[in-house]
Amino acid sequence: MADTDKSPDSSRRSERSRRAILDASLALVGEVGYNKLTIEAIAARAGVGKQTIYRWWPSKAAVLLEASMALSGDAEDEGEWTGFPDTGDIAADLKHVLRLTVDQFNDEKYEAPARALTAAGAIDRELGEKFTRQLLEPALVLYENRLRAAQAAGQIDADIDVRIAVEMIVGPLTHRWLQRTNPLTHDFADTCVDQVLRGIAPR
Hints:
Blueprint: H1 10-32, H2 39-46, H3 50-56, H4 60-77, H5 90-105, H6 108-123, H7 125-152, H8 162-179, H9 186-199
Helix pairs in contact: 1-2, 1-4, 1-6, 2-3, 4-6, 4-7, 5-9, 6-7, 7-8, 8-9
């Protein structure tokens, strides 16, 4: 006989509410922008009370940051991101990842929260540091590790500063995305890789 007296699983209920809140923040920031995003609006869209949100997060920025991290996790789960490849061809591997980055920058689902956090982080130092530490830095470390493997294989100069090389590769992409003055394309990503690798090739 089924146990009809079993109480609801509060952890599952909480997880559903948490996910609804994160999804609502992502949807709303794309619709109204960061400045008009409010805890009240997130709560209404998620179908929860605003005190539920404040119990878990101190601000709308904190909600959006966690939502963005969850979005990155979803991309991995769905196979959009399967890790930094190491095929032995450093140019091909960098172009593959940079093209995926272009696709995300051009996808409103990713672009809206990323722009919101970038803008808010430029004003709110604490948020900016968290954004960098939790979202940006782990991605840059993957680039660094791949370049170090290329150094060990003799594909790039052993004396270069790997961190600066990474910033030279991804920096132009980010700059073009922020400026919106020119289209962000796969060809542009490929050119960035080719020109940087030409400069850091073995002497």
